[in-house]
Sequence to fold (348 residues):
Amino acid sequence: MTPPIPSTDLGPTPASPLPELPGHTSRGRLERVLRRGEFAITAELNPPDSANPDDVYERVKHFDGFVDGVNATDGSGANCHMSSVAICALLTRVGYSPILQISCRDYNRIAIQGNVLGAAALGVCNVLALTGDGVQSGDHPEAKPVFDLDSTSLLSVIKIMRDERTFLSGRKITDPPRLFLGAAENPFAPPYDWRPLRLAKKIAAGAQYIQTQYCYDVPLLKQFMTKVRDMGLDEKCYILVGVGPLPSAKTARWMRSNVAGVHIPDEVIKRIEGAENQKAEGIKLCIDLIKEISEIKGVAGVHIMAYRKEESVGHIVTESGVLKGRQPFRRAFATPADSEMPPSAVAM
Fold:
């Protein structure tokens, strides 16, 4: 049984949504940080192959005081893990600001709209709309894909639910979900000229922020951002660039060959391969990339994807210096798996 959560100035418990603010579509931290013009940090929580909630809490505690939002992945790579909605429910119980990822691969519009309402009722304030990887790439290739919607139409559906207070069928919603809507984009896959145009379509459908695929090629990112600024899209949408530490040159080569949409230049692999400690060099590369990315006009933050390496996130954020003294939400856990830690919470 989870111990009681102490009161803070965030409300009755840290999990409570924040007070409403004019012009905000959600009552969550991530939207506030971005609207204040602060450099935002989000990170991906790798879901456990387990029904034990402590497996989630053990991983997320590494993000304490370093991130403004935690992505709960939804069957990424078409592999089966604990559900995104369940992870979000666990995270809201202890005060984190989760980002509900929704993959259109696995649900029709009825299930999606129900999940959106349920997640909002649990205190989730952020959604990331994804089309989803094909089932052939995962551990259940015999599964039947759904794809009733794609990521762009999914954004439109949730925007209708939020702003027009109706389901897609037209039936009224008595209390609409207050959500900050996000989408994914990949500036590093051809055709490069089409990527800003696709981003514009997602913004028109309702995207308020995007998280990109891993960035290991800053010149390509700068090329993308130039077109984004020329189209005025950086003023309509907050752009968080994906980054992540590479543990070895071998892993980098495998990702480049096997993970759809990942682009890793030869010089990056050579840098890691030539290092005495490849894991340490991969972390240093990630830090260097964040520093360089943060200087690009129009970039609002970074999204850290440290696969099975959550413990590296705090070091990466600290060494990059991008928080500039600001401390995101921090909570010392008091769960059965971590009972020696004092139950305290500090607001952002």
